[in-house]
């Protein structure tokens, strides 16, 4: 589904990623684990097209997408939930969610809204409320639902549990499991390794812009839970 090979990303004179290679097979949930500055978000942003790659290739469904803009990658089947609960604060909850399904037609949008409201009843309860008035956990749900509303083939999640109370971590974990049941392929970054490891099939340990180790969840668990990676 996704193949990244020898990827390099730079911000001015700073190298954020050095020859990073990862693979995400169809139907897998793959976890990127590492501390702040490890390069996790840079990798996600390069895949979705928000930052340019200095070198290397990114293939999605067998096609080189290096020249595609972020919106074309989204139309090709990528969904993205950024770090930090980024919602449109003055727009309603419903409008925030359905921006992720823009251009898919009213029938598809209704299908998405009905399914997501079943997963997250809060969406229906707060549908008309400006998203900026919600709590942090509720805003994260809105951002997450927006990423899922197009039912993407590949769902990119950047720190979905960041700063959340256990109740919201549990609800987002349940939603991820429901997306997995639909066959969605997921690539997620997370510092909070413990809940993320319960969802992943494989993972990569990142540090200093490089992949230091990869393997099954069982193979990387101890490193992922080590203090230096939290």
Written account of the structure:
This protein has 230 residues and is an alpha/beta fold. It has a single domain, classed as 3-Layer(aba) Sandwich (Rossmann fold), CATH 3.40.50. Helices cover 36% and strands 27% of the residues. It has 9 helices and 10 strands. The protein has helices at residues 40-48, 70-75, 93-98, 106-119, 121-125, 136-148, 166-181, 193-197, 217-225, and strands at 2-11, 14-24, 29-33, 55-60, 63-64, 78-81, 154-158, 185-190, 202-207, 210-216. A 6-stranded mixed beta sheet has the order 6-7-8-3-9-10, sandwiched between helices. Strands 2-1-4-5 form a 4-stranded antiparallel beta sheet, with helices on one face. The chain is globular. The mean pLDDT is 90.
What are the SSEs and their pairings?
Blueprint (H helix, E strand, L loop, with lengths): L1 E10 L2 E11 L4 E5 L6 H9 L6 E6 L2 E2 L5 H6 L2 E4 L11 H6 L7 H14 L1 H5 L10 H13 L5 E5 L7 H16 L3 E6 L2 H5 L4 E6 L2 E7 H9 L5
Parallel strand pairs: 3-8, 3-9, 6-7, 7-8
Antiparallel strand pairs: 1-2, 1-4, 4-5, 9-10
